[in-house]
Specification:
By secondary structure, this protein is an alpha+beta fold. 36% of the residues lie in helices and 21% in strands. The strands form six sheets. Strands 12, 13, 14, 16, 17, 19 and 20 form a seven-stranded antiparallel β-sheet that branches. A five-stranded mixed β-sheet has the order 2-11-10-3-9. Helix 23 links the parallel strand 23 and strand 24. Helix 16 packs across helix 17. The model has no long low-confidence stretch (mean pLDDT 88).
């Protein structure tokens, strides 16, 4: 037997023993035998370095140190789930599903909603990559850290591309052990298992991730239809057989009443589980119905996440302070006696506006009921009247901006600082402009923006592009080095090339969100055309109402905003839409449901999808009777076969390129 053959034999055995120990919890060999084989493999790889691979069992202890995580474009978007908070929400979801598919009763799969970090694994026999959700389209390649989780197979016995998604989490025992070590070392503790898991996966040193005791459950076989798997329950069974760890607490429920019984059962069992859950996920079991049920911009209509009622605690309202947002909005905020709720310590909570405080009847010094809305956002529910002792102080809304002293104006329920030069407004505008959905300037977050503003390096979004002038001054600050400021300056320069929709959203025009910014960018193509649009013209655009139309016209009419655009242009910022501006109505693909399969030599799948969507098409991941066109690249597989069987129009890459010219 050659060294290579022996290494492969040992690797197969160790993978088998990992599966038995970490997935089945039923080891068939002793620890000593496992260690003996591992030592033999280590020695073989030492003597024959060419045998070492990143997926070898010897590499699962970590040790790879990276400078940064590479970006990964998901072949299919990683969507989030819509939330349900009560029985009415769930019954409404069930009613909508039944109406669309025309059935009296639907079979659902109910599963634990693990409180961890969403992850996607792509295999082609061997693990190709492990990627975080990111923004749903682009995530980070964290393979070196994920492969240290020993319940995850490094290769699978199946031909073809295989994508599975799930949740990396930290078991309760691992968190207790980790926090005990941190306490002994005088380090800050992790607030909860979710934060601990996310922090561990984003370690640049994989040895740190390996030491954290992470685990993972896998719950969605993305391209199951490529393997002729119709039902979600069957897909999970198949994942089990391939060596993935799926959650055994899942249950097929026939109708919504059985789902509700399952939720009641696991609401009681929740504290006894060895991992944290924050709800129950309900999915239609028949995956052939998914395209018919459809999707919103961010969520599928065939699944929903039931969120457990939030935990409520009592704490003292020590003070009410005021903050200024980028639009000048003044927000009262509760300063609370620190209290632990839903896994983390809370000492601040927004109180929204004057009317909210008065309607709640809150007084400074009150004991209040606090919870986290959706287990995330701290929310003051009500004062505890019975605990008042007469020392409480009534709330009074301020009349002047807490930052610049400018008189406040009230509009509807909100108060605003009308001073456009208010420092707080400028800082918030800079933070928004640099944010991920806007110009995506990595490294220019809230703390850095505030620090640089206070140092006088920039006072508005235009001056961000002159930060190079202050490079030496930044290096002189504590915590800054040449590499860190040069990386930030590079990120700022790179942002100049962004498409129009990003800068349009970054400008912070009232009522213009990221989605609307892209719609406007597609229609007008450049900032100058949009600036000349009238209210009447804007109102002809779908989803544009009178308030938005008026807001856009008013914003572009102001000299200060015209000057901002002119200066950004001088700095080299792009104001053109970089996607296709072709009229969708004139396109062959307008109104058609399309599926991409195989590999296109001229572009990636993401680029092809964007082109199709810009031309008015709906792009889906699987072939069904509702599909109009399949675009087939090289090595097109089962989707092509299915399209031909159903008599669906199939076009090759050259025909596709001709049609999109």
């Amino acid at each position: 037997m050659t060294p290579k053959q022996r290494a492969e034999e040992i690797t197969a055995l160790l993978e088998k023993y990992n599966y038995e120990y970490y997935v089945l919890d039923n080891p068939s060999v002793s620890d000593a035998e496992y260690d003996r084989l591992m030592q033999e493999l280590i020695l073989l790889e030492k003597e024959h370095p060419e045998l070492v691979s990143p997926l070898s069992p010897t590499q699962r202890v970590g040790g790879l140190v990276q400078e940064e995580f590479k970006k990964v474009t998901h072949q299919r978007m990683m969507l989030s789930l819509a939330n349900a908070f009560n029985e009415d929400d769930l019954r409404d979801f069930d009613r909508k599903v039944r109406e669309v598919i025309g059935q009296d009763k639907v079979t659902y799969m109910a599963e634990m909603k693990i409180d961890g970090l969403g992850m996607s694994l792509l295999y082609n026999k061997n693990l190709v990559y492990a990627a975080t959700r990111g923004d749903g389209t682009t995530g980070e390649d964290v393979t070196a850290n994920v492969i240290t989780i020993k319940s995850i197979p490094s290769h699978i016995d199946i031909d073809g591309e295989f994508e599975i998604r799930g949740e990396v989490f930290m078991p309760k025992k691992s968190l207790q052990k980790l926090n005990k070590e941190k306490e002994e070392n005088g380090e800050p503790l992790f607030a909860n298992a979710r934060n601990a898991a996310a922090g561990s996966i984003r370690q640049l040193d994989s040895a740190v991730a390996a030491s954290r005791g992470l685990d993972a459950f896998w719950y969605y076989f993305v391209n199951a239809s490529d393997f002729h798997v119709r039902y979600h329950s069957e897909a999970l069974d198949m994942a089990d057989k391939l060596g993935f760890k799926t959650n055994p607490e899942r249950r097929l429920c026939h109708g919504i009443d059985e789902v509700l019984q399952y939720i009641d059962e696991y609401t009681e069992k929740r504290p006894s589980l060895p991992y944290d859950i924050d709800g129950i996920v309900i999915k239609v079991d028949d995956m052939s119905l998914y395209d018919k049920l459809g999707y919103t911009a961010k969520t599928p209509r065939w699944a929903i996440a039931y969120k457990f009622p939030p935990e409520e605690v009592q704490t003292k309202l020590l003070d009410i302070i005021f903050t200024v947002g980028r639009t000048g909005k003044i927000t009262p905020n509760a300063v609370l006696e620190p209290v632990r709720v839903a896994g983390s310590v809370v000492q601040r909570a927004t109180l929204h506006n004057e009317d909210f405080v008065n309607e709640k009847g809150l007084m400074i010094g009150d004991y209040v009921v606090l919870r986290k809305a959706g287990d995330v956002i701290p929310e003051v529910v009500k004062p505890v009247i019975s605990r008042r002792d007469g020392t409480e102080i009534p709330f009074h809304m301020i009349n002047n901006c807490p930052d610049c002293g400018f008189p406040l104006v009230r509009k509807d329920a909100m108060h605003f600082c009308a001073n456009p030069q208010c420092p707080s407004r400028q800082i918030e505008s800079i933070i928004h402009f640099a944010s991920k959905d806007a110009m995506d300037i990595e490294g220019l977050g809230e703390k850095v923006a505030e620090q640089f503003f206070n140092q006088g390096f920039f006072h508005n979004i235009v001056e961000i592009y002159s930060l190079m002038d202050h490079r030496d001054e930044v290096i002189a600050l504590d915590g800054w080095k040449e590499k860190s400021i040069d990386n930030l300056i590079t990120a700022i320069d790179n942002s100049k090339a962004n498409s129009l929709e990003r800068v349009l959203f970054g400008l912070g025009i009232k009522e213009v969100g990221a989605k609307m910014a892209k719609n406007l960018a597609k229609i007008y193509g450049n900032i100058d055309a949009l600036a000349q649009a009238t209210e009447e013209e804007l109102l002809e655009i779908p989803d544009v109402g009178p308030i938005l139309a008026q807001s856009l016209v008013n914003w572009f009419s102001k000299d200060a905003n015209k000057e901002t655009i002119a200066k950004l242009k001088e700095a080299g910022v792009n104001f053109q839409y970089l996607g296709s501006t072709s009229r969708a109505a004139d396109s062959y693909f307008s109104g058609k449901t399309c599926v991409l399969t195989g590999t296109l030599s001229s572009m990636g799948r993401k680029e092809a999808t964007e082109i199709l969507e810009n031309l008015g098409a709906k792009v889906t991941g699987s072939v069904s009777k509702a599909t109009d066109v399949v675009i087939a690249g090289v090595e097109a597989g089962s989707k092509l076969d299915k399209a031909q069987a159903l008599g669906i129009t199939v076009i090759n890459e050259s025909e596709f390129l001709e049609l999109i010219k």
